[in-house]
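[job 4417] fold queue: 2 targets
>>> target A
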Amino acid sequence: MMMTKLATKPPQLTAIVIAKNEAKMISNCLQTLQWCDELLVIDNGSSDQTAKLAEDFGAKVIGFESQSFARLRDEGLKRAQHDWVFYLDADERVTPTLAKEIQVQLETTQAGALRIRRTNICYGKEFRHGGWQKDYVTRVFQKKLLAGWTGKVHESPVFDGGVATLQTPLIHLTHRNTTGGLKKTMHWTKIEAELLVKAKVSSVGFKTILRKGLLEFWRRAIWQRGYQDGTQGLIEALVQAINKFLIYIQVWELQQRPPLADQYQQLEADITKLWEQQ
């Protein structure tokens, strides 16, 4: 008597997108994820139409606010319904070739995670130097092997099992304009400064601030050959240097004793006393 072989169900995948005020980007991002079995958007306190646009594309939207990307990614892991999860940001795009490669890997790989190289488009140009050329991100995981994420700004996954590296890149449409970049800079440099102070970084003075910024520009523009990406590469190196300046200026500010807020409060009190003496 012949035995009928039962067909195995192909692995299913939940795409998890972290987004905040990404109304201009979320629809096109989700458009490239329609091949996934579930679309999950973790909305980090958007005040625009991000949530509505995501729902229009069939995504399940979870409102969850946090300054920690690790906590946001953990929330997505907790909510995902399928055996595999794929993390994206709203400014990242999947090509048909990458989608097919991921699907093949889910059915054949023995690894617990998939690593993808990102093609970074900054100021409208693909960057091949300045530290952007070796940008690999591990974003696809067997859910049961992913314990969670650590790190408040530069988060990292904690998982078991090996990692397979894909051949097809993920497209990253970043640094689309100066204004948007500055808004993100003011948010994340503050957090990085707070983390440095919490880690008991040495006392920061003007020489340290200047050295950190200039070294960052030299590292990206010269040592990592960012100048070969033309004007865009040099501008990006300068932006990264400015970010470093701002981080250490804010470290200096947080190290002041008494704190600057207390100093201004004392000045206000002194002025009030002058008026009371009239």
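>>> target B
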Amino acid sequence: MSGPISDSGPVSVGKMKITDQERSKREALKRAVKPRIASTIVLTCGPKNNPKILMGQRSSRHDFMPSVYVFPGGRVDRADSYAPYAGDLSPRTETILEAAYNPRKARAVVLASIRETLEETGLMIGQEAEINRNINHITYDLFRQAGQLPDISDIEVFGRAITPPHRHKRYDTWFFIKDLDCKVPPPINDSHELLNVGWFTFEEIQELELQRATRMMLQVLKDYMTSSRVEPHVFYSRAMYGKYVQGRFP
């Protein structure tokens, strides 16, 4: 990060850059695109002081953030609002999310990150359960077939970032973390969304091709993981008057 988080107001953290392809798509728009709600999750495994983190590389064919490494995640779908689940949100995560959404939507934001993780990496974050309801959704049906429910417990929110208005695609993304409490990382695989999926240490991640926002959130993640106390708010990045700014939410 280029500067400290401030309670006193916006802090400039650099000018925005866009590619020629993105610029042409943005110029074709009559107004800035409304951000879509999205979520991403950092899954850790191994020693707390040097964990392995699950990431994958976006395809070069993507017209938004091509070829860069990211955490599993994506936009919130309608199915996330009524999918069956196991566990409960932590009181802290629940309070922070419900400062922005109603309880069902807050839960859906977390479930979206779990669903996207399965779709993009093949990793199922679930809890054994007897499931009596099928919502006719291909990914949630995989949970049902495995006798699992998506497990929303032990997941903490640590950040929020909104894509700046000059992008042709915009997301209001929430960042979560869950430690899998494992010594050996579970099996994962590539997908049509993410390639070269793997488990990386912080040092290894620094050698990967990353988008600016991912580098920023990695520093936020480190600060969160090394903090002596868990704050009742999260880091919040967005754009104001042509500059990136950072603060806290709520």
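[job 4417] complete. Note on B: Residues 1-19 have pLDDT under 50 and may be disordered.
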